[in-house]
């Protein structure tokens, strides 16, 4: 009995020690970054004709609270170098100052390739740590054995992103939520899906059903409202397309979703701030009726 008691005490001590460093969930995004209970903002790719500095300003202009960066966007009008996980600490400091100026919080980074080699993958996680990000978005499904230990070490979530089904490329399977679930279900709970609901619609899928398949594994989301259930459509303001944004929000609420929603408006590239603002307004209106 004494031996069992000692073993139990040791196990408890080990759990507490590890729990103080590596929690089972990434730290939540603050409530002051939320609109209607959702951490809502823009994927900087919506402004890919502009720089990171301008994307931050445009996110604020549209009424967003958070931003998700993507690799390779030009840094600023005065310094058009690529901004990504290879950049200097000085550039990160300048970006943080721009975020503070417009009261925007960086929460995610992607879609970014995470290599299999640990040193290369660690660069992505170090970049995320320096920006105090909640998550990373990737399609690097063949690097999961490298990604999982880093998720535990850095306590940063990783979402596997889905692009549309590729009729001429059967090897691409990320569009299928059942496939993504098969990849993550036995992994650390901080590894899951970056649910691009617009791409699910473009693949002919029902986004609510996709979310239900991935229940509990939604790390973040890319929101689009689409005019068609094929790749021939385009983005429109929330509530005016076929995606069913309100039903998607209902499902995320049921799942106690804590990640970020990035509006990714892939249309009217040089003048889409009013449409994005309308989409932010839709979510405000949705929340006011609940």
| Share of helix, binned | 25-40%
Average pLDDT, all residues: 92
- What fraction of residues sit in β-strands? 15-25%
Overall SS class: alpha/beta
CATH superfamily: Divalent-metal-dependent TIM barrel enzymes
CATH architecture: Alpha-Beta Barrel
Topology:
Elements: H1 2-21, E1 34-35, E2 38-43, H2 52-61, E3 66-69, E4 73-74, E5 82-83, H3 89-102, E6 105-109, H4 118-130, E7 135-138, H5 144-154, E8 157-161, H6 177-184, E9 191-196, H7 197-202, H8 207-213, E10 218-223, E11 225-226, E12 235-236, H9 245-254, E13 260-263, H10 273-288
Parallel strand pairs: 2-3, 2-13, 3-6, 6-7, 7-8, 8-9, 9-10, 10-13
Antiparallel strand pairs: 1-2, 4-5, 11-12
Kindly describe this structure.
- With 290 residues, the protein is of the alpha/beta class.
- It has a single domain (33-288), classed as Divalent-metal-dependent TIM barrel enzymes (TIM Barrel), CATH 3.20.20.
- The chain is built from ten helices and 13 strands.
- The chain has an eight-stranded parallel β-barrel, surrounded by six helices. Strands 4-5 form a two-stranded antiparallel sheet.
- Helix 4 packs parallel to helix 5 and helix 8 (207-213) runs parallel beside helix 9.
- The longest helix is centred in the first third of the chain and has 20 residues, at 2-21.
- The protein is globular, with a radius of gyration of 19 Å.
List keywords for this structure.
eight-stranded parallel beta barrel, TIM Barrel, single chain, alpha/beta, 290 residues, two-stranded antiparallel ribbon, 13 strands
């Amino acid at each position: 009995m004494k031996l069992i008691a000692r073993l139990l005490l040791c196990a408890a001590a080990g759990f507490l020690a590890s729990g103080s460093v590596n929690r089972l969930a990434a730290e939540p995004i603050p409530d002051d970054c939320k609109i209607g209970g959702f951490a809502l903002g823009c994927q900087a790719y919506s402004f890919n004709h502009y720089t990171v500095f301008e994307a931050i300003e445009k996110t604020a202009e549209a009424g967003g609270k958070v931003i998700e960066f993507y690799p390779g966007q030009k840094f600023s009008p005065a310094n058009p170098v690529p901004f990504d996980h290879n950049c200097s600490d000085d550039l990160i400091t300048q970006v943080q100052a721009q975020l503070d100026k417009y009261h925007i919080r960086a929460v995610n980074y992607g879609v970014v390739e995470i290599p299999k080699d640990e040193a290369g993958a660690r660069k992505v996680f170090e970049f995320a740590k320096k920006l105090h990000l909640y998550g990373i978005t990737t399609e690097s499904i063949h690097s999961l054995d490298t990604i999982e230990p880093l998720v535990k070490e850095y306590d940063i979530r990783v979402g596997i992103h889905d692009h549309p089904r590729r009729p001429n490329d059967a090897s691409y399977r990320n569009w299928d939520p059942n496939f993504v679930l098969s990849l993550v279900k036995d992994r650390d709970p901080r590894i899951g899906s970056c649910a691009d609901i617009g791409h699910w619609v473009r693949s002919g899928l029902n986004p609510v059903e996709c979310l239900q398949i991935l229940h509990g594994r939604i790390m973040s989301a890319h929101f689009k409202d689409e005019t068609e259930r094929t790749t021939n459509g385009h983005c429109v303001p929330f509530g005016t397309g076929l995606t069913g944004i309100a039903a998607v929000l209902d499902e995320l609420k049921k799942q106690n979703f804590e990640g970020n929603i990035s509006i990714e408006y892939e249309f009217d590239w040089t003048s889409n701030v009013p449409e994005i603002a309308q989409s932010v307004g839709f979510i405000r209106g949705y929340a006011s009726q609940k």
